Amino acid sequence: MKNKRLRNDIILLLTLLSAALAVWGLVKLAQKKGGFAVVEINGAETARYPLDTDIEIVIETADGHENLLVIENGFARIEDADCPDRLCVKQGRIGMAGESIICLPHRLVVRIAGEEGVDAVS
Question: 48 with 65, same domain?
Answer without folding.
Answer: yes
